[in-house]
Amino acid sequence: MGKRWWTNDWLLQLAVAVGYGLLYLAIHPLSTAYWPVHVGVRLACLLLMPYRFWPALYVGEILPNIYEILPCTEQGTIWMVLRSIPPFTITMPIVWWCRERMPPLPRSTQRLVDIKALLVCVLLVSLGNMVYSSAASATSLAIPGPMAVLPWTIAFFLGPYLAILSIIPWALLAWLNYERGHLREQAKKALISPLVLETVVLLFPAVVLLAWLDKVGSDQIKQIATIAMFLPMAWLTLKHGWRAVALSAPLVIACISLPLPIADTTISENVYATQFFLSIAVTSLFVLGARISVQLVEEEQERVTARNVQRIARQNLQMGEQRMRQASQALEYLAGTLHLTNGRLLEQMRRIVPNIESHAFYKQALATQTQVYRLAESMHPIAWRERGLPAALNETIARALDEAGIAYRCQISGRGFTRLAPSVLTATYRAACEVVVYVTSRLSCTGVNLTLRGGETRGKRWVALRVEGVLEETGIASAVYHSEERKRLATKLGASILDVPEIRDHVRIFDGELHTRMPKDRLSITVLLHDAMQEERSVTSAPMRLWVN
Predict the structure, then answer these.
(1) CA torsion angle 177 181 182 187 (round to 10)
(2) Does pLDDT of 508 surpass 50?
(3) CB 33 within 8 A of CB 119
(4) Confidence band (pLDDT; 50, 70, 90) for 268?
(5) What pLDDT does residue 262 have?
(6) What is the predicted pLDDT for the residue at 95?
(7) What's the rounded mean pLDDT across residues 116-131?
(8) Residue 3 CA neighbour count, 13 Å, CB half
(9) Residue 91, exposed/middle/buried by CB under 10 A (0-12, 13-18, 19+)?
(10) Which residues of 442-478 are buried (b: 16+ CB within 10 A; e: fewer)?
């Protein structure tokens, strides 16, 4: 198989030189004295392309540059000599120093941009272009009279500065988001992103309308329209960070810079003020957007960390419940073994001592077996293990409350309990036990109404639990009579006797909420839990690549 042309270094160098020359000629009609777009393209190429392609870029600018100055013979010989020197001659040393001493694009595994280094590089390149353009203009013979040096010198700085700020962001956006082999997916994802949609729907119509007002309105209307163009940019920046500025700044700069009147020897105060305002506003929004992007990423990292902590807490909760289930099964097996062992032991004792009184021994052995079964039941109920959460609420809690002399009513509605994550079911049962123990800790509580409902909203499953305690002063006597059973209620249900803040913390592991209400003669606690399995399956957004400090 033949060697591909892009693997040949000489052909690749030639392609870069020809490509850059054609690009220079293509964007030349769009460039004006106040918005030299080719300056931004030049800096973007020097920043993003390796050093080995710089000679090709230099050669690629020689011919278009000569083609540009040939029609301007009236400017004089000295001007033509100076302008025949490609601007790359000034820009290359500056960009090389910036890339070596304070690189705007750090050499790291992640694609990041150093905003401080980038702004310094843009500033130095703009100053270099100012010196280049001022030196050439000072030798021009086409200017009939003395030229206002200071305004033109500042304009030679602000024009390239604005051109760079309108080209570099788009180039960096493409560089940051480019992934080889996924160009179509990346383009589709960018087109449907909220930032692009809001830019097209909000920013673009507003900029077009304000640009029209800037063209046909009075001087005051023009000033207001120019300032108002940055309001939607600022709003998008506060919401999306620096990417909003990078996407919208070129549009605003082009709408303001292209209609500016070009004078031969003078520059008006309005043009000077407009360029200065544009430079300050766009730079400020870039810095603000970079800081907001950093904050957004920090918040995203905090959310990811919180999610990881929640996930670990859920796993620990489920593993702890699994250990309790294994311990409960082991205790049940131990209770059965004790029953068989004690039965055989009593049978052997009857054979050795026929007249022995075995009833007391049998009663004691049966009490020990019952205690072991109760301990196993409190750790992990058989009804829950074999028939699920509804059975545990209807049987285990009902039996414990009945022994304590408390009326109990359980109502279960909805569906999808079997599709919930096991950790959610575990948290629901444990929360129900804790809330029931908390409600019945009041002596005036004579009844408990438990309502459980499962559902699904927007593809996200949830379960709601409400425990309502009936408070009656007349039931205090019954509570005192069953005080011993009430004290053992927490042990029977395997509850830790948590307070409301502690139960709320337990519920928040599953992004849940807990509300407490105390209507007349009632104490109502409502718990809402979300399905953790769906949250763990959900695809999180890709980390934002941003401008770093």
Answers:
(1) 70
(2) yes
(3) no
(4) low
(5) 58
(6) 92
(7) 89
(8) 7
(9) buried
(10) ebebbbbbbbbebeeeeeebbbbbbbbbbbeeebeee
Confidence class for position 542, pLDDT limits 50, 70, 90: very low
Residue 533 has pLDDT above 60, yes or no: no
The single-letter code of the amino acid at 532 is A
User: 460-471 and 445-457 as β-strands: parallel, antiparallel, unpaired?
Assistant: antiparallel
Which of 39, 248, 23, 310 has the alpha carbon at shortest distance from 159? 39
Q: Which residue from 102, 151, 150 is spatially nearest to 122, judged by alpha carbons? A: 102
Give the helix ranges, DSSP H, for 70-113: 77-83, 88-101
Alpha-carbon distance 253 to 274, whole Å?
A: 10
| Alpha-carbon span 48 to 46, nearest angstrom | 6
pTM: 0.66
Q: Give the three-class secondary structure for 110.
A: coil
Task: Name the burial class of residue 415, with classes exposed (0-12), middle (13-18) and buried (19+) by CB atoms within 10 angstroms of its CB.
Answer: exposed
Note the pLDDT tens digit of each residue in 193-205.
777 888 888 888 8
pLDDT digits (tens, 9 = 90+) for 223-236: 788 788 888 888 88
Average pLDDT over the chain, rounded to an integer = 79
* Residue 427 backbone phi and psi in degrees, to 5: -65, -35
**CA-to-CA distance for 373 and 381, rounded, in angstroms?**
10
Structure tokens at 359: 């009833």
Q: What is the phi/psi pair of residue 528, to 5°?
A: -120, 125
Please tell me the chain's helix, strand, coil percentages from 3-state DSSP, rounded to the nearest 5.
Answer: 70, 10, 20
The 8-class DSSP code of residue 544 comes to: P
Alpha carbons within 13 angstroms on the beta-carbon side of residue 302 total 6
Which of 9, 4, 97, 1 lies closest to 55, judged by CA? 9
pLDDT computed for residue 96 by the predictor: 92
| β-strand partners of 465 | 452, 527
pLDDT for the residue numbered 518: 85
Rg, the chain, Cα only: 39
Distance separating alpha carbons of residues 18 and 34, to the nearest angstrom: 27
Report DSSP letters for 202-252, one per residue.
Answer: IIHHHHHHHHHHHHHS-HHHHHHHHHHTHHHHHHHHHHHTHHHHHHHHHHH
Query: pLDDT tens-digit profile of 84-103?
Result: 888 888 899 999 999 888 88
Cα 531 to the chain's mean position, in Å? 21
The yes-or-no verdict on residue 146 having pLDDT over 50 is no
392: exposed, middle or buried (Cβ count in 10 Å: 0-12, 13-18, 19+): buried
pLDDT for res 540: 38
Distance CA 407, CA 423 (A): 29
CA–CA distance, 273 with 275 (Å, rounded to integer): 6
Quote the CA–CA distance of 447 and 450 in Å, as a whole number: 10
Residues 277-285 have a mean pLDDT of 86
Least confident residue range of 168-182, 275-289, 420-434: 168-182
CA–CA separation, 101 vs 79, rounded Å?
A: 34
Spacing of C-alpha 50 from chain mean position = 32
